[in-house]
């Protein structure tokens, strides 16, 4: 059985924003998408640890 991650709209929007901030617009490769996901996840984790409310 495969693991499936269901993402919220806010999470998808934030990952798209991260990708665009690195110049990735429109159709992006799987590698670029994965990099954006990792950056977004790390950013959310750090914000939570430091009690920063960014809405993510």
What's the overall average pLDDT, rounded?
A: 83
**How much of the residues is beta strand, in percent?**
under 5%
The SS-based structural class is mainly alpha
Cα shape: globular
Query: Which consecutive residue ranges, at least 5 long each, have pLDDT under 50?
Result: none
Order of helices and strands: HH
Task: Count all strands and give the number.
Answer: 0
The percent of residues in helical segments reads: 55-70%
Number of domains: 1
Structure description:
By secondary structure, the protein is mainly α. It has one domain (10-49). Helices cover 59% and strands 0% of the residues. The protein contains two helices and no strands. It has helices at 9-21, 30-49. α1 crosses α2. The N and C termini lie far apart (29 Å). The mean pLDDT is 83.
Write the layout of secondary structure elements.
Layout: H1 9-21, H2 30-49
Brief overview:
By secondary structure, the chain is an all-alpha fold.
Key terms:
56 residues, 2 helices, globular, mainly alpha
